[in-house]
UniProtKB/TrEMBL annotation:
<comment type="similarity">
    <text>Belongs to the aldo/keto reductase family.</text>
</comment>
<feature type="binding site">
    <location>
        <position position="143"/>
    </location>
    <ligand>
        <name>substrate</name>
    </ligand>
</feature>
<dbReference type="InterPro" id="IPR023210">
    <property type="entry name" value="NADP_OxRdtase_dom"/>
</dbReference>
<protein>
    <submittedName>
        <fullName>3-oxo-5-beta-steroid 4-dehydrogenase-like</fullName>
    </submittedName>
</protein>
<keyword id="KW-0560">Oxidoreductase</keyword>
<dbReference type="InterPro" id="IPR018170">
    <property type="entry name" value="Aldo/ket_reductase_CS"/>
</dbReference>
<feature type="domain" description="NADP-dependent oxidoreductase">
    <location>
        <begin position="40"/>
        <end position="303"/>
    </location>
</feature>
<dbReference type="Pfam" id="PF00248">
    <property type="entry name" value="Aldo_ket_red"/>
</dbReference>
<dbReference type="InterPro" id="IPR036812">
    <property type="entry name" value="NAD(P)_OxRdtase_dom_sf"/>
</dbReference>
<dbReference type="InterPro" id="IPR020471">
    <property type="entry name" value="AKR"/>
</dbReference>
<dbReference type="GO" id="GO:0016491">
    <property type="term" value="F:oxidoreductase activity"/>
</dbReference>
<feature type="active site" description="Proton donor">
    <location>
        <position position="58"/>
    </location>
</feature>
<keyword id="KW-0521">NADP</keyword>
<feature type="site" description="Lowers pKa of active site Tyr">
    <location>
        <position position="87"/>
    </location>
</feature>
């Protein structure tokens, strides 16, 4: 893959393309100063990022919109340069709620279309505007999941020109097969966004996705998550790993840059997250070196099958994806 900082788009199965590195915008609303996302997106666009990964449930899409609008007004980018990914949360899986949610997302962003729109998880929650519906005991309220019906509603959004590509996130093999084998399937998922880093390489899921021309997109690609609500496993910091650090020294790079380079050489899109300008810039500087085949195998051997974001508070959901091997 001859990718550069200027041209790093790779093809999707539906004929569209996606930048192989994206800027993740999730931030804990109570721990993140107002305006941080807006400033981060603006700086990221200046650095060269064109892929912005957002979601309605992040509660900061208005800041993403402001950043994109300002950069377009400056002449820094055109709308067609930006690749925006939005997400359908479980409270909107009822087919009747899908189109209104997509429309509301586009309205919030002042966009005519989303480049990619994905199901954030395979798990439906009680329909409504409450992001985390809970009962009187504080337990999340699940809803009967019909993934195929939700997918059909998303297909209608693509037919209407509201989204260019459709994908999923946190789906296991069985759930992907459910969509792929759906009667009268019009559009198969172009991607599956999942946790993936050198301590959790997702080899079997990656092989399955590649067999079906589904691109893997990696969130938490540096093995770091600062949101305690999603953490399942705690392990020593990935970026302190001696192998990654030694390879970084060899190429005059950081362990983080080595970890990101590892995944993009596997054909995986990476979504590093930081609102720190220095880190934003550092994470993007991964196109001027390559790891050897032997080095790639050494990093693959670091795999411990350790998942950071296990969504444990949803582990009793009938469509919880992580009870199965992959």
């Amino acid at each position: 893959m001859d990718l550069t900082a200027v041209d790093h788009r790779i093809p999707l199965s539906d004929g569209n393309s996606i930048p192989i590195i994206g800027f993740a915008t999730y931030a804990h609303p109570k721990l993140t100063p107002k305006g941080s996302c807006r400033a981060g997106v603006k700086f990221a666009i200046d650095v060269g990022y064109r892929h912005i990964d957002g979601a309605y449930i992040y509660r900061n899409e208005h800041e993403v919109e402001e950043a994109i609008r300002e950069k377009i007004a400056e002449g820094r980018v055109k709308r067609e340069d930006i690749f925006y990914c939005g997400k359908l949360w479980g409270t909107d899986f009822d087919p009747k709620r899908v189109l209104p949610r997509v429309q509301k997302t586009l309205q919030e962003l002042h966009l005519d279309y989303a480049d990619l729109y994905i199901m954030a998880t395979p798990m439906a929650l009680k329909p409504g505007d409450e992001i985390i519906p809970k009962d009187e005991n504080g337990n999340w309220i699940f809803h009967q999941t019909n993934l195929c019906a939700t997918w059909e509603a998303l297909e209608a959004c693509k037919d209407a020109g509201l989204v260019k590509s459709l994908g999923v996130s946190n789906f296991n093999r069985r759930q992907l097969e459910l969509i792929l084998n759906k009667p009268r399937l019009k559009y198969k998922p172009v991607c599956n966004q999942v946790e993936c880093h050198p301590y959790f390489t997702q080899r079997k899921l990656l092989e399955f996705c590649q067999q079906h021309d589904i691109l893997m997109v990696a969130f938490t690609p540096l093995g770091i998550s600062k949101n305690p609500n999603w953490l399942t496993t705690y392990f020593e910091p990935l970026l302190e790993d001696e192998l990654l650090k030694s390879l970084g020294e060899k190429y005059n790079k950081t362990a983080a840059q080595v970890a990101l380079r590892f995944n993009i050489q596997r054909g995986i899109v990476v979504l590093p997250k930081s609102f720190d300008p220095a880190k934003i810039k550092e994470n993007f500087q991964i196109f001027d070196f390559s790891l050897t085949e032997e080095e790639m195998k050494s990093i693959e051997a670091l795999n411990r099958d350790l998942r950071l974001a296990g969504l444990d508070n949803l582990c009793d959901h009938p469509e919880y994806p992580f009870h199965e091997e992959y």
